[in-house]
Amino acid sequence: MTVRIAVQLHPQHADYDQIRAAVVQSEELGVDIAYNWDHFFPLYGDRNGQHFECWTMLASWAEITERIEIGPLVTCNSYRNPQLLADMARTVDHIAGGRLIFGIGSGWFERDYREYGYEFGTAAGRLRALDRDLPLIRERWKRLNPPPQRDLPILIGGGGEKVTLRITAEHADVWHSFGSPRKMAHKMKVLDEWCARVGRDPAAIERSVGIDQENLQRDLPLADAYYEAGIRQFTLGVDGPYRGLDGVLPWLAWRDRMNA
Fold it and tell me: What is the pLDDT of residue 243?
């Protein structure tokens, strides 16, 4: 499995024109994947600053790009009926010509829930809902006319060893989390154990690590250790107002050396 470099363009603290330019620049630089996230308010900085919605933004990205894959990192299962979410994803996939990665998680940001009128509940309850809804989403994709343009790759974010990694083993094509090479190696061992229990080939699941914007330069020397641990997707966080993507360039050069 080859190395892929993704950017997560945080949809906050920027005008949409700036976000639009950043995703176009990402494609021009040769980035493999562009993600946003599914929240309603900034996660850091000015908590009441500028912020835009996930899926309407992805529909725009689908139109303005040609090669780069796109997706949410991750969409919150709680915010939409699963049948509707499946249809939204299918539609964006068609707009993109078959380039959508369907990232999903159980949700965690309480302010989103509280201010938009969703029941926050408990972490365990949100995970049970994700476990319940993923089969519904996959079944709806089969019933839609037309269906998605490809078997939509499912990305699941999170590192909970008892439930999240079991759900990942059952459903995911990509697993995403954060942590040192040692921590990620441990989590991947647990994921492999879950794959054995559910009868899934662990090699079928691409492993992704998130690198924060402020650590892009610091963590580049760790790239080889992540690679040795089994990571093949490196997701670089970039925040608005997107005054440039220079920090991504060394990672792209490292990718090209590894894939040569």
Answer: 77
